Amino acid sequence: MEVNCEGCAGCCMDWRSLLEGDSESTDANSGENGGEYGSGGDRDSGRRPRRRRDPIDGVDGDAPSRKPLDDDPNFVALTRDEVRAFLEAGMGDALTPRFWEARDESEGVEVDGHTVAAVAGRPAFFVGLRKPPKPVAPFGREEPTWLPSCVFLDPTTLQCRIHESDLFPDECGSYPAYNLALEQETECERVEAAVGGDRLLEADSDDTEGLLLGSQALGAKLFSHPRPADLAGIVGRAAAGELTRRDRAEAIAVAAASSPGTLAISDHHYGWAKARVLEGEGADSSAEREPWVGPAIRDWHRRHREGVGAVPPPDVADAVEVERGAPETPGWDALE
């Protein structure tokens, strides 16, 4: 598999609004949205038939897919071990859950007016990476635009800040091999169809070792909450893009406490994980001991709120992220 990522990062941001000519049409304020690919994303590229991968059942062919409550078209699903690794690194602020609407009442649990897809009566969810608004200029655009972008994306180079670290998610490292294995259209192909250029240079890949589907995913990538009542309020705020740190902590703790292949939850790991997410709660954005991720996310949201209509240059990320301790990226010249 060979891809051309320079100047793209289409799989790391929600760029649908660029096709609509409206940088504010996506909910950049929440940074925690996801769903079926919208404007431009579901157009037929003519290159590959699209099949739906369902997070609970695996590949369902023509069966209707469960719809996420959020609106993030490129949600990166993390494994339990990856969730724990982010928490150990003090980066719980980078994580957020995703729930789905059930296909019908028989397979779901009612929470906050939503029939949430469930496994054995337990609301099912993923844990992935947040997307705060960042000023980015992908696909050769000259002017930056506020777009929901991965917390680890450097807006200046459009490279991942954790690419060569132990925290780099398997889902990112294997992309787009998983899509190709499931005969789904890749983000590379969507970018090619929308703005031109060559992104997917070689489509042959057998890198599917971490592609967990169906029962394989249970407790390893697909998590289930044992106490649906504890999600009251959380599900509604997830659908509205208004999750709080305490909301995220509840789901993240269950994910970190899960046991692959079972519905078992470790009370010890649940308590540990919840404390790790909440330990920086109420901290000032200039707190010396807090990892850079949380303060940077808050700063991006503040700048976006206060600067509607004015988009700063991408290199403002030096002040927002690098000066707080974020790893720098090498740039594309250094990789040639």
Give the topology, please.
Elements: E1 2-3, H1 16-20, E2 53-54, E3 58-59, H2 80-88, E4 95-99, E5 108-111, E6 114-119, E7 122-129, E8 133-136, E9 145-148, E10 153-154, E11 159-160, H3 170-173, H4 177-181, H5 187-195, E12 200-202, E13 223-224, H6 234-240, H7 245-256, H8 267-278, H9 293-306, H10 317-320
Antiparallel strand pairs: 1-12, 2-3, 4-7, 5-6, 6-7, 7-13, 8-9, 10-11
Account of the protein in words:
This protein has 336 residues and is of the alpha+beta class. The chain has one domain (2-328). Helix content is 24%, strand content 14%. It contains ten helices and 13 strands. The strands form five sheets. Strands 4, 5, 6, 7 and 13 form a five-stranded antiparallel sheet that branches. A two-stranded antiparallel sheet has the order 1-12. A hairpin with a 4-residue loop joins strand 10 (153-154) and strand 11. The longest helix is centred in the last third of the chain and has 14 residues, at 293-306. The chain is globular. The two termini are 18 Å apart. Residues 22-53, 58-63 and 283-287 have low confidence and may be disordered.
Coarse structural class: alpha+beta
Q: What spatial form do the alpha-carbon principal axes imply?
A: globular
Q: Give the termini distance in whole angstroms.
A: 18 Å
In N-to-C order, the SSE pattern is: EHEEHEEEEEEEEHHHEEHHHHH
- Domain count: the total is 1
- Give the helix level as a range of percent: 10-25%
Total count of helical runs of at least 4 residues = 10
Q: Spans with pLDDT under 50 lasting ≥5 residues?
A: 22-53, 58-63, 283-287
Q: Please indicate the percent range of residues in DSSP E strands (runs of 2 or more).
A: 5-15%
Mean pLDDT over all positions: 85
Radius of gyration: 19 Å
The biggest beta sheet is recorded as: 5 strands, antiparallel
Count all strands and give the number: 13
